[in-house]
Specification:
Strand content: 25-35%
Number of helices: 6
Number of strands: 10
Largest sheet: 6 strands, antiparallel, barrel
Distance between the termini: 40 Å
Structural class: alpha+beta
């Protein structure tokens, strides 16, 4: 019988990444869903019978037994060597057998990066299907922002302070940001709102999905990406990975999208 295994969120990022690699090698369906501690993976046959795997921590041996039972796959060497996706030719690989600590750290770091990329891609796909207003209501986007200040910090990275653009130029005090799910260490992308026709007011300005705007790409013009540095009631500070060559592009209105959170990945890397 063809099954689709639904694993609990208790799996580590390393275990999920290895399962992605095993499925890729064996042409099985695989997808991670959810955010943060609620993230889980499902593998097998996309239209197969759903099988919920018991909650609680699962060891590498438990995962190997499940793969053997449901798909007749011997994945013991994958968990021993932690080999990454074959399509990533620049990723480090380790020969079968015992690894040194340095080899283990190097390969595990590669696997964690693959899982992080997968989470970012899932967030991108979700936001592309939503209208700007719907994305903001879910807490995944903030609309009609403007740059209050820019400064250099964090090892030379540019710190950009974003505030609401509602009532800008009217003399009123800066309003609080609407409810959202942004927090420190969130991976974010900054976009121009001009591509989807937003502007005045505080909610945006179009009822079309972000992925169907009339110009500026699937998410409007992407200006920069970075990590949330600080969150306050009226502002969010983003440490940008890079800045546009033309600073005038940051004159707004702007939209901030939440892509993933780096905290979990940093903890594993620090460990």
């Amino acid at each position: 019988m063809k099954n689709l295994l639904l694993f609990p969120p208790s799996l580590t990022s390393r275990q999920r990444a290895i399962l992605h690699g095993v499925c890729e090698n064996n042409k099985l369906y695989h997808l991670s869903e959810g955010d943060g501690i609620n993230r889980f993976i499902k593998i097998g046959y996309e239209s197969g019978k759903k099988v919920d795997i018991e909650k609680g921590p699962l060891s590498d041996d438990d995962l190997c037994k499940l793969l053997e039972t449901h798909f007749s796959i011997d994945a013991s060497h994958n968990f021993t060597t932690a080999a990454p996706y074959p399509s990533h030719s620049d990723s480090p690989t380790v020969k079968m057998g015992l690894m040194t600590v340095d080899e283990f750290v190097k390969v595990t770091d590669s696997l964690l990066e693959l899982e992080r990329q997968d989470e970012v891609q899932q967030a991108t796909d979700l936001i592309s299907k939503l209208t700007p207003e719907a994305a903001q209501l879910r807490g995944n986007s903030l609309l009609n922002l403007r740059v209050e200040s820019m400064e250099t910090g964090l090892l030379g990275r540019t710190l950009v302070t974003l505030i609401s653009g509602k009532g800008f130029g009217s003399g009123i005090s800066t309003p609080e940001l609407p409810p959202h799910q942004f927090g420190p260490h969130d991976i974010v992308s900054l976009h121009s709102s001009k591509g989807w026709g937003g502007g005045g007011g505080g909610s945006g300005g179009t009822d079309r999905p972000i992925g169907t705007n009339g110009g500026g790409g699937s998410h409007g013009s992407t200006l920069a990406s970075g990590v949330i540095y600080r969150v306050r009631e009226k502002s969010i500070v983003v440490a940008l990975d890079d800045t546009p060559e033309d600073d005038s592009l940051l004159e707004g209105p702007l939209r901030l999208n939440k892509m993933a959170n780096e905290t979990t990945f940093r903890r594993y890397r620090d460990t």
